[in-house]
Amino acid sequence: MAADLKVREDDVLLTNRYIYGSYFENLDLPCQVLLKDDYDDGEPTDEVVEAIRRDMIEHPQRIIAVGGGAILDVAKFLSLKECIPLTELFDGTVQPCKGSELILVPSTCGTGSEVTNVAVVSLVTRQVKKGLAHEALYADRAVLVPELLQALPLEVLPIVQAI
């Protein structure tokens, strides 16, 4: 997959430690790698999105996200020109505008987040979980990699194999 995408220095790969170690670590990718587990291991929050954005390179060409719904949702926000503070997007004081190409690679089956224009986050200061739907949150490409599903729990695999 990384070879097909021709990963470059101005790309950002967002994933988790398990996926990175299993599929990407030995590839010596030239891009910036950000691991969501370095920030938290739960559902995305505005604090996590903003912390990752602050650590991210300026003006990445592409955001490549590989993981479950939480990682894909964080990546959707990161692909926008402005996402700090995130609350301004929800308040409507900043309009969502795509800043980077967004490539989403799901590692689970379920919501289909990779093909929706919705991203969900908990706004910690407001103690509320909200979704934002906007055209700018659509992925430019969704890539399905069957090998990423091999680590799904056994009770899920028969359903995936039947599809």
TrEMBL record:
InterPro entries: ADH_Fe/GldA (IPR001670), Alcohol_dehydrogenase_Fe (IPR039697). Keywords: Oxidoreductase. The keyword Oxidoreductase applies. It holds the Pfam family Fe-ADH. Residues 41-145 form the Alcohol dehydrogenase iron-type/glycerol dehydrogenase GldA domain. Gene3D superfamilies: 3.40.50.1970. GO terms for molecular function: alcohol dehydrogenase (NAD+) activity; metal ion binding. Transmembrane segments: none annotated. The keyword Transit peptide does not apply. This is Putative NAD-dependent 4-hydroxybutyrate dehydrogenase. It comes from Megasphaera micronuciformis F0359.
